[in-house]
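Query structure, 385 tokens:
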């Protein structure tokens, strides 16, 4: 083979190799890359459940929230509800609602404004509330100190006579004239029962005690309460109790150098020298229970009457100069009431006229207590009609 032929063959082989390389390279460039998988859509978060509307609660007060007594105690209970349930409730109140046609108007207005739990905090609201309740079947009505109910209206009360009895123990131990005085509001069984219990407590430590009463025919009337307290002191009473809502009785005793008790709330600050102790009501336990019932759908009609046993009544801020024996007696009674082993209204018990009202060892039931319309022996005067 000549050198020319060798060169020709080598040139053909080189061209063939180059062509193959080009074709192979072109083949690689034509291979398309596999498309990337699309990302999965993110899950859609579930919408939060709508927050329940708060329970709207309204309170109708017979006096001003600053009375230092009855209404002040109720308003402390309202505040306890707010603290207990937070944003689950919204509360409101109307003060100085008279026990008249105005009460019906206020209660109806409260229900119309979307309140689903309405408290009427005085005896005189009973009939107005009974008129309003049937027109608002979805509203729960609560009446303090009454005895009539409806399908959506129940009653609640505090055994204030237990506080009055403990006050009587102290009064009977402290009196120098053996004459006690009571400034009374309205002659309903609740108030008459308290006058009697105060007298019975005093007689348990001092059988010589007698009790004088002046009625003012109102719950909150400081001028009349002052006048009544002054009259009692002028008549020989040196220790006073009240069943009215202001601090006027204690302040009058302070001014005239006598002794007295706070009522419904701790009134020490209104007459520190005169103050012997305060028979207080704690409405918080009941108001919290009633609100819980409404929130949980367990509310039912009926009646509730709570006292020392349930933490609703107590004697507080007893003065330092009260004898140790009297303080011990109060502690004994309180413990017995809490345990359910002590009965204040237990026979033998006679009325003012000397006739037996409870036989020996007989214990008054709530029906008997709810219908007390007589004075016990030792209370002077007549029960007004």
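Result returned for the query:
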């Amino acid at each position: 083979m000549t050198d020319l032929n060798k060169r020709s063959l080598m040139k053909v082989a080189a061209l063939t190799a180059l062509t193959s390389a080009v074709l192979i390279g072109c083949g690689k460039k034509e291979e398309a890359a596999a498309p990337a998988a699309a990302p999965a859509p993110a899950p859609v978060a579930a919408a939060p459940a709508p927050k329940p509307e708060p329970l709207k609660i309204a309170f109708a007060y017979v006096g001003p929230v600053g009375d230092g007594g009855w209404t002040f105690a109720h308003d402390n209970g309202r505040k306890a509800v707010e603290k207990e349930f937070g944003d689950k409730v919204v509360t409101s109140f109307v003060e100085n609602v008279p026990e008249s046609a105005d009460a019906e108007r206020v209660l109806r207005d409260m229900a119309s404004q979307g309140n689903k739990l309405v408290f009427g905090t005085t005896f005189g609201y009973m009939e107005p509330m009974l008129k309003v309740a049937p027109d608002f079947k979805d509203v729960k009505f609560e009446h303090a100190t009454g005895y009539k109910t409806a399908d959506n209206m129940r009653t609640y009360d505090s055994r204030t006579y237990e506080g009055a009895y403990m006050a009587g123990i102290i009064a009977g131990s402290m009196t120098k004239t053996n004459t006690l005085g009571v400034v009374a509001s309205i002659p309903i069984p609740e108030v008459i029962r308290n006058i009697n219990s105060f007298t019975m407590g005093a007689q348990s430590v001092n059988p010589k005690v007698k009790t004088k009463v002046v009625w003012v025919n109102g719950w909150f009337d400081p001028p009349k309460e002052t006048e009544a307290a002054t009259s009692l002191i002028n008549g020989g009473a040196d220790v006073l109790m009240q069943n009215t809502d202001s601090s006027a009785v204690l302040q009058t005793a302070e001014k005239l150098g006598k002794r007295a008790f706070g009522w419904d709330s701790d009134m020490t600050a209104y007459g520190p020298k005169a103050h012997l102790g305060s028979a207080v009501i704690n409405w918080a336990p009941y108001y919290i229970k009633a609100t819980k019932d409404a929130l949980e759908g367990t509310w039912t009609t009926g009646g509730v009457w709570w006292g020392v046993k349930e933490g609703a009544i107590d004697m507080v801020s007893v003065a330092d100069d009260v004898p140790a024996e009297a303080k011990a007696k109060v502690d004994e009674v309180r413990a017995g009431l809490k345990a359910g082993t002590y009965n204040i209204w237990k026979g033998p018990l006679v009325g003012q006229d000397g006739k037996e009202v409870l036989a020996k060892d007989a214990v008054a039931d709530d029906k008997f207590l709810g219908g007390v319309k007589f004075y016990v022996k030792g209370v002077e005067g007549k029960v007004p009609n």
